[in-house]
Amino acid sequence: MSLKNGTNNSKSTGQIIVVTSGKGGVGKTTTTASIGAALALKGKRVLVADADIGLRNLDVILGLENRIVFNLVDVAKKVCKPQQALIKSKKSNNLFLLPASQTDEKDVVDEAEVKAALDQFRREFNFILVDSPAGIEQGFKNACAAADKALVVTTPEIPAIRDADRVIGLLTARSVEPLLLINRLDQNMVRRGDMLSVEDVQDILGIELIGVIERDENVIVSANCGEPVVYNPKSKAGMAFNRIAGRLCGESIPIPDLGADSIWGKIGRLWA
Question: Is 210 in a helix, a strand, or coil?
Fold first, then answer.
């Protein structure tokens, strides 16, 4: 790779997308790894960057935890050359990891340093996916610093949706386009009225839907094996992540109709 002195120029073409949510535990890291791997399968050069300083996990999801030497903080502080911190995936020549530091505090770097660190990779990659830490403090601000777009990940649960709504407001204030990704949808629970439907979540958050991931135990198995679920051809979640990658590449791929009425629709019919 030729990252000439780590500087950016006017020929930058790579798109930086932050994967965020506000709430922890909704699947941001799995989403980052899975969509990154799916984009790489499509022939795109992809960098997945872990911005969760002090609590890194993206390396584990990709099975690369034993190969880390330098990290995002080292690049931001110019301790190493940019390419020295990159780790190539075992499964793809198109997929690279920029890990987070495990020992530093989240405020060891500021937004300007993280933006400069990530911007210099735009010339070498088609997509740079940034795994944001939970919350809306400094770690979130750092992760969003260079972003062109955001994937806002939420589960169909009120606490997660409320936090996602807060994050959407912050992204909009930063002129970062938010796209909605609904994770861990359970159609049986939706049909019973025990879970919000895709339509419900869309109505509440009011942003464009990029994809829906159904609950799938293969995601847990894949994470424990250090291999993104998109490599499992039998996984519903893997197929859904592949479709999302296609949409990010500009492909016209319809979002499947999961066929469950919204809770609000059921209530409306009861009162009709």
Answer: strand
Number of domains in the chain: 1
Q: How confident is the model at residue 261 (pLDDT cuts 50, 70, 90)?
A: low
At residue 154, what are phi and psi to the nearest 5 degrees? Answer: -145, 150
Residue 98 pairs in a beta bridge with 49
DSSP notation for 10-54:
TT--PEEEEEE-SSTTSSHHHHHHHHHHHHHHTT--EEEEE--TT
Mind listing the pLDDT tens digit for each residue in 186-226?
A: 999 999 999 999 999 999 999 999 999 999 999 999 999 99
76-103 confidence digits (pLDDT tens): 999 999 999 999 999 999 999 999 999 9
Domain residues for the domain of 52 are 15-271
CB 160, CB 196: distance < 8 Å: no
Distance between CA atoms of 76 and 57, rounded to whole angstroms?
19
Measured distance CA(161)–CA(169) in Å, rounded: 12
CB-based contacts of 194: which residues, under 8 Å, 6+ apart? none
Q: 269 CB contacts (<8 Å, ≥6 apart)?
A: none
What is the CATH number for 55?
A: 3.40.50.300
Type and span of the H or E element at 120: none
Q: Taking the model in full, what pTM does it have? A: 0.89
Residue 249 domain-assigned (yes or no) = yes
Q: Which residues contact 10 (CB under 8 A, 6 or more apart)?
A: none
If you write DSSP's letter for every residue of 71-110 in order, what string do you get? -HHHHHTTSS-GGGG-EE-SS-TTEEEEPPPSSS-GGGS-
List 211's β-bridge partners, or say none. Answer: 181
Using the predicted structure, report yes or no on whether residue 4 has a pLDDT greater than 70. no
Look at residue 3 and tell me if it is in a domain: no
Contacts of 50 (CB under 8 A, 6+ apart): 29, 56, 57, 58, 59, 72, 97, 98, 99, 100, 131
